[in-house]
Amino acid sequence: MFREDSSRYKKFSRRAMILAGGQVALFGLLAGRMYQLQVLESRRYKMLADENRINIRLLPPPRGRILDRFGVPLATNRENFRVLLIAERTRDVDQTLDALGRLIPIADHERRRILKTIKKRRDFVPVTVQENLDWKKVSSIEVNAPDLPGVVIDVGQSREYPLGPDSSHLLGYVAPVSEKDKARDRSGDPLLELPGFRIGKSGIEKQHERRLRGKAGNSQLEVNALGRVIRELSRQEGQPGDDVMLTIDLGIQNLAIEKLRDKKSAAAVVMDVHTGGVIALASVPGYDPNAFNVGLTRKQWRQISRDPLAPLTNKAVSGLYAPGSTFKMIVAMAALEQGVVLPDHKVFCRGHVELGNARFHCWKKHGHGWMDLNAALQQSCDTYFYEIAKRVGIDKISEMGIRFGLGEATGIDLPSERGGLMPTAAWKKKRMGVPWQKGETLVAGIGQGFVLTTPLQLAVMTSRIASGKLVKPHLVRGIVSGGVSQILEHEDPTPLDISDEIRTLVMDGMNSVSNTEQGTAYRARIAEPGFELAGKTGTAQVKRISKHERETRVLKNKERPSKDRDHALFVAYAPVKNPRYAISVVVEHGGGGSKVAAPIARDILHETLKRDPSGYRKRDGVAGEKEKGRKA
Amino acid sequence: MRIGSADRGPMTIGQKLWQVSWSLVLFLIILTGIGCAMLYSAGDASWDPWARRQLIRFGIGLCLMIVVAVTDIRRWLRHAYTLYFLVLGLLVAVEMKGVIGMGAQRWIDLGVVQLQPSEIMKITLVLALARFFHGASLEEIGRPTFLIIPLLLVAAPVVLVLRQPDLGTAIMLIMTAGVIFFLAGVRAWKFGLVFGAILAAMPLAWTLLHGYQKKRILTFLNPESDPLGAGYHILQSKIALGSGGVFGKGYLSGTQAHLNFLPEKQTDFIFTMLAEEFGMVGGLILLGIYAIVLIYGFAISLRVHNQFGRLVTLGITGTFFFYVFINIAMVMGLVPVVGVPLPLVSYGGTAMLSLMIGFGFIICAYIHRDVRVGRHGNGGDD
Known about the structure:
The complex is a heterodimer. By secondary structure, chain A is of the alpha+beta class.
């Protein structure tokens, strides 16, 4: 047995050694693998570990405010109080919701949504119960906090427009980012992906989106495997959006809206004739931009978008209107420049002109008699302008119109501006395939027919007449960035390519319109010395007057259904000596320019002169007293 | 290692206690200490819920170990089969009415303690096989038919464990048995034959595997294929290990472990946590301590003068080795995920107790290294 055991022992020892060898080899394998993972590939795994635990959360920057030229806020950020529910911290979700429902009413479908969301998310993720709470509700929740475990009040920011609908067209509104917006905005700004983030959708909000938006900050959070935040590792504050200061004077803007409000659909633009700064840009009716921010219901949207008064359209820049008689300055300047008519050249007005078989009527049925340029502008004689338009031709008229800013987008910093039309013979041939008719030139001569302009363009035209400068309209006066304001506006646009003599003749005519008794806008003059305005009325025909009507009686505007009534227009600048401000007013289907549009324009312009947002009187002394070498 | 004098005559309890290899016990205490430190970290710097209980179990385990160690080895030889069949009976009982735990029936509720018979089987199988080969000559072992009984001894618990189903323990049992067969002198070509047979049976075995077992193996082959699903555990474990680097992230600072990206960090993946917080240095030190314990096992086995003691010592050493190797290889993505704890470090009661009992047998063999052991556990030179 002992010998037997010794042989077994030998075999055992040998095999134990083999086994030990095997184990050493396997331990070596483990050590090697450790070296591979922890030394050779360690960097990759460190990165993966950080990816695991670090969550980057975007911090949306506060959106820049929009201010008027004196710093009065037009668009601001309001603290938006929200009630959140954290399921994990409640004893019983239903019970807590019941208790909360006694303080703030929670609709049944809301409650269902909340419960559904809670079920879907992890326990510690806060679920929004209600947004945009007022102070009363917030404080009642705060007071009852001990009875509301898991209920948390959270403060966010939301956009607020103190003027509501009155500023809607100018400022636009903000709303959540759509897929289209993402595709269009190629900045790759991560903020666009942030749920609930809002961007400008129209108006200044859209035009200056990049400046207003600011740059996102971020916070690096350590999270565990369930996504629960453990702590903040680092925080990088974003850059708040810049405040955009407009050229708008809120006082005048409000007045303009006030004056237009009882008109169904109208627009007015007030401009500084030297800088091109737009002081008021009004369009009625408007819409409530605050409602867009919160989110419209389908019904609300349908109502707004189908309204025949087009509350979504900014008529000051997108409304296209025949300029009517306000176009006559352009026709006159084209004729004078071409030398086809001299200032003292007289035309006899019988009440109509004949061209071939067609008869073109003057607004004054029995005619004005002998008319020179000044009188023709003063009394807005159509016959005179038929005559000189015929002589100068459509192409030259349109060229002059374009020179004065009509028929092409002005490039104002607003989206959705429309161009209008200055027709030419070539345009008609190309567009309609038929040659230009001479009669169409006559119609264009009184600002009807194919001629289309926007109220803004008419204000630009008036500014250019008054200043002789190539003024371009703009809305941004300056930027306030990090508390430092920077004024961008300056006063020296290049001179316009038009002789001062011609310009002076036209301005004299406009002066006669307002300040002589026969002038069509004499009743809408400013009598206060030094504040006198020079203007031009316009009445744009909407419905063609039939031959039958001519023979019997042309219905007065008041007698016609409103959609057939004429558009009332008025353009003006003031003061007559040393002009500073220009205005255009268009009242859709308002009737006659002199009766409807001119008084509105007068009131607004008068107030503008008194407020003097550009401060020219302070710099130049008393209004009109000193000319500073400017041609008036 | 202490080497006592080889006196003849029966030893007193005091002499036996003097003979206990206390330096080996010291290393076991160090391992448990490391384990408790990691469990303290896993509990987010708290003795509860794991570290304290682990320490208490170690204390109980230590007592059991000493009791086993000082008991005469011949008594153990005599009762080897009895113990084996007792535990086999427990396995059957688990099969009959086991408590469902972790998706598999592994526990039996004895009222006070929940017992995991498959863990204890790892020890009793060693005892039973050691007893069998103790009484066998090399010629007998050379006869293929002679091996039928020990193969049945292995097959019975393996089948029962597989039915639980616990693939990890079944593999451990087979490998431990393989070690004893090998040390007992079964010819090498027979191992080759069995190995070949296993390879051939693999396709068949694949069809018998549970869905989750198949998934584990597939995931093992390509863990990154499913990073949020079944591959999650192993991927997160590798990230934790790799991000630990050479010196680790510092005690209590393992982000993967403390932010719960690491699964089962107190049990199967505790090595990952250690290597994340102490880096490769920490991992290698732990591996070194395991190596020292293994060396004790080999050294003792070579000093024992009876086949039973030798086989028991290296059988249990082998089990211990497989625990360490499979666990660490698993968390490093070298072998599929099978639920094998890291000995003395992972949290787990039965594993701790059975391991301590196992070391009790090793020390018992050492104390009784010069005792003559007859074929059936009687003294004398038969």
